Amino acid sequence: MSFSTLVSDLTSRGSDRADVRSQYSRARSVASTAATSVSIAGDISSQLHSGYSHPLSRAWQAERQLTKSMLIYPLFISDQPDECTAIPSLPNQSRIGLNRLVPFLEPLVAKGLSSVMLFGVPLAPNAKDALGTAADDPDGPVIQAIRILRRRFRDLYICADVCLCEYTSHGHCGILRDDGSLNNEMSVDRISDVAVAYADAGAHCVAPSDMNDGRIRAIKLKLTAAGINHKVLLMSYAAKFSGCLYGPFRDAAGSCPSFGDRRCYQLPASGRGLARRAIRRDIAEGADIIMVKPAGQYLDIISDAKEIGSDLPIAAYQVSGEFAMIHAAAKAGVFDLKAMVFESTDSILRAGANIIITYFVPELLTWLES
Ligand SMILES: NCc1[nH]cc(CCC(=O)O)c1CC(=O)O
Ligand SMILES: [Zn+2]
Ligand SMILES: [Zn+2]
Prior knowledge:
This is Delta-aminolevulinic acid dehydratase. InterPro entries: ALAD (IPR001731), ALAD_AS (IPR030656), Aldolase_TIM (IPR013785). One of its GO terms (biological process) is protoporphyrinogen IX biosynthetic process. The protein has helices at about 5-10, 15-35, 55-60, 100-110, 140-150, 185-200, 215-225, 245-255, 270-285, 300-310, 320-330, 335-350, 360-365, and strands at about 70-80, 85, 95, 115-120, 155-160, 205-210, 235-240, 290-295, 315-320, 355-360. By secondary structure, the protein is α/β, with parallel strands linked by helices. It has two domains: about 1-40; about 70-365, TIM Barrel (Alpha-Beta Barrel). The chain has an eight-stranded parallel beta barrel with strand order 1-4-5-6-7-8-9-10, surrounded by seven helices.
């Protein structure tokens, strides 16, 4: 670090004057010793502070910069057509009914929104049962939303999350045996039917988040049998970790399990090897996109996914808990919201993702404008 960059670093960090003065004199004494002991010509490779305080020269350091086309915005579609209810644990996010969907999205599409991920929220009494029947109800929120969006927004890319937990009475991501454990075979059969129903309604991409073994292959086979495989991408939530970052989502979607937890089908936080196996397995089964979720706490897994799936797009889901944490910390004055959001998305891109699913999409569309 040269003397002048050290000083400009110190001043730009906003230290107060006295502080800067004392650090300045310390820097000067360091610099003067350095000047006598280091030959400038002999050690050029140690000089990394070559003037990147300018925003453009900072931007040039990035392998990839965030663009609007990398973003997918998650939406909670309610079965109550006129609903537009704020979700308390997810700042600025709402549950939206079918009648509110187009006016809600119009300004975002005008700002460059390119893709959404749909989650259905059945609120009607008796909407939930043991088989998650409402998941592929042709009049249900997801299938209807897909049809409306395809008709109204010609260029919008529509992804549909595929799972049963929003629709099952027990809140688990599949069909259960009498002893309460997941019946993998029945679950995969049901999940793959739901995926085909969403694809058939016009979803460009189906994204199974249930984690049942063998679902990627089953979905591919059924899409092929239905003659629509050529129209739809299959995005696998391949490396999905169980933890405490999904709480606000479960509030929003009403998908909290009524007993037990998701530990038998979601990965343990420490399970890097398991995640690598799941990524390899899902690629072998025919996944077109590999997703890692959550994002910020699992950057190494994103980088593993990029290495293992070097020929596939890699998506990262900055989940509800990450979003809520960043909001809460910004509100508490820990940092500036915008600066932190870009720091988080830069980290996700640096780790190797090229698609980011995040609740910050509306803000990012505004910030990426300038
Ligand atoms: N299969 C449900 C599902 N799909 C996406 C998320 C999490 C998204 C978020 O927290 O933002 C979850 C929650 C869960 O596994 O309980
Ligand atoms: Zn689920
Ligand atoms: Zn799930």
